[in-house]
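Students often ask why inverse folding is considered easier than folding. One informal answer: many sequences map to the same fold, so there is more than one right answer. In these notes we will look at a single instance of the problem. The structure comes first.
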C-alpha cells in the first residue's frame, strides 16, 4: 500500500518511521511519502493560508498548493486517481471506526490531506472528488490543532489490518470493536498477584466455558462503557446484530453473491436481480434501507434489511453464509427485521423464489403466508404477515 501525506508540519509524521509501520516500510509492505505542502507554494513567504471569505476568525488553507500537489501526485505522472482514496482529516468528517479501517485497508493507495486552522478551502475537496474517492474523516468528537495526529491514528488502525503486517493475525479478530463489542479483560501469569486472583474459569482448561465467560464479560463491559454500541445492536448468544455501515458494502455484496447462486440454482433462474448488483448499488441501498449485519470472528456472515412502503414493512436480502446455515441465524435475522419495524407499519412483506423450499418453510414457520406468486421465471412468491402489537 502506498501512503502519501500532505501537511504543513512534516515532522509531526516522524512516528511513521517507528515501530510497526517503520518495519512495514523497511519490508516493502508500505511505501510512505510525507510531503511538505509548502513545496507547492511560489511566494517568498511560502503562504499556505488566507482569511476566510465572509469573515470570521482564523485562517483557511488555500486551494492552490493542494491543487498542484494533487496534479503531481494524482495526475498522469503520479499514477492517476484510480484505486486512490484521499483522506481528509477533519473534526467535521464521518466518524473513524473499525469497519472504516477495514474498508480503507482494501485500497491500493491513501493520500492524506491534513487540515489545519479553520480547515481547507472546500473547492480542494470538490476538485479532488473529480479525480479520486474522497473521505472526510474525524477520529472523535473533539478538536485537535490539526489533522496530522488523526492521520497517524488512521494509518495505524488501517496498516495493522494489511495481510502480513501483524505477526499473529488471530489477535486481530479477538480485539475490541471486532464483532461490535469491547474486548473482555485479559490476564497473564502469575495466577495470583498482590491478593488479586485470575478468574478461575480461565485456569479450568474448559474452552467452551472460557469462550462463554469472555463473551459475557465483553457484553457487560460494552453495556457499562459503551451502551451506545449495544443500542445499535442486539446481543443474542454468540451473535450480535449490528446496523450496517457503508464500509460493510463490499462484504455484503460478497455474501449476497454467494447466497443468491443457491437461489438461482433452486429456481433455475440466473436473472435473479441480487446476483447482478455491483458494489455501488449495494452501497447506495444502505442509504435507502435499514440494513443489519452479523459478524462471527470479524467475518460478516449474515444480513437482512427493512424499509417502509406506506404501512408495509418490506423485509429483504435475508442472507446467511453457507457455512453458518442450520444454526438459527436466519431465524434470528428474520425476528430482528420484524422487531425493528417502525410503529407505523401494519404488516410485513417479503419476497422469495417460488422454488426456494427452505426459505418458504422458514417464513411459513414464522407466521408468513404466501399472498401471491408473481409471473416470472422464479415467481417470486410474495409473503405477508399482519403485525400484531401487544
Ligand atoms: N483535526 C482536528 N481535529 C480533528 C479530529 N477530531 N479528527 C480528525 N481531524 C481533526
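Output (designed amino acids):
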Amino acid at each position: 500500500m502506498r501512503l502519501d501525506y500532505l501537511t504543513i508540519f512534516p515532522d509531526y509524521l516522524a512516528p511513521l518511521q517507528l515501530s510497526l509501520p517503520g518495519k512495514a516500510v523497511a519490508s516493502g509492505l508500505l511505501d510512505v511519502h510525507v510531503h511538505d505542502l509548502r513545496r507547492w507554494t511560489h511566494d517568498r513567504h511560502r503562504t499556505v493560508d488566507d482569511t476566510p471569505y465572509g469573515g470570521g476568525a482564523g485562517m483557511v488553507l488555500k486551494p492552490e498548493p493542494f491543487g498542484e500537489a494533487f496534479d503531481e501526485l494524482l495526475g498522469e505522472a503520479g499514477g492517476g486517481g484510480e484505486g486512490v482514496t484521499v483522506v481528509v482529516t477533519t473534526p467535521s468528517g464521518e466518524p473513524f471506526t473499525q469497519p472504516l479501517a477495514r474498508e480503507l485497508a482494501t485500497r491500493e493507495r491513501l493520500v492524506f490531506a491534513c487540515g489545519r486552522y479553520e480547515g481547507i478551502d472546500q473547492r480542494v475537496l470538490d476538485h479532488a472528488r473529480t479525480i479520486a474517492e474522497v473521505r472526510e474523516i474525524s477520529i472523535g468528537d473533539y478538536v485537535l490543532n490539526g489533522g496530522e495526529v488523526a492521520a497517524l491514528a488512521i494509518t495505524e488502525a488501517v496498516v495493522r489490518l494489511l495481510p502480513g503486517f501483524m505477526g499473529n493475525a488471530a489477535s486481530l479478530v479477538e480485539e475490541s470493536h471486532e464483532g461490535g463489542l469491547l474486548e473482555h479483560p485479559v490476564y497473564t501469569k502469575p495466577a495470583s498477584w498482590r491478593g488479586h486472583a485470575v478468574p478461575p474459569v480461565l485456569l479450568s482448561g474448559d474452552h467452551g466455558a472460557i469462550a462463554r465467560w469472555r463473551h459475557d464479560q465483553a457484553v457487560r463491559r460494552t453495556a457499562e462503557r459503551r451502551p451506545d454500541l449495544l443500542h445499535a445492536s442486539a446481543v443474542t448468544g454468540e451473535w450480535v446484530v449490528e446496523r450496517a455501515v457503508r464500509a460493510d458494502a463490499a462484504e455484503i455484496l460478497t455474501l449476497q453473491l454467494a447466497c443468491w447462486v443457491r437461489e438461482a440454482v433452486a429456481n433455475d433462474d440466473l436473472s435473479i436481480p441480487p446476483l447482478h448488483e455491483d458494489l455501488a448499488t449495494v452501497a447506495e441501498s444502505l442509504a435507502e434501507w435499514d440494513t443489519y449485519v452479523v459478524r462471527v470472528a470479524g467475518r460478516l456472515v449474515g444480513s437482512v434489511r427493512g424499509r417502509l412502503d406506506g404501512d408495509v414493512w418490506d423485509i429483504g436480502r435475508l442472507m446467511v453464509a453457507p457455512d453458518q446455515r442450520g444454526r438459527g441465524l436466519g431465524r434470528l435475522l428474520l425476528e430482528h427485521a420484524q422487531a425493528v419495524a417502525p410503529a407505523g407499519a401494519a404488516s410485513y412483506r417479503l419476497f422469495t423464489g417460488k422454488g426456494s423450499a427452505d426459505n418458504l418453510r422458514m417464513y411459513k414457520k414464522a407466521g408468513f403466508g404466501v399472498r401471491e406468486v408473481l409471473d416470472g421465471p422464479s415467481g417470486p412468491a410474495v409473503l405477508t404477515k399482519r403485525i400484531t402489537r401487544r
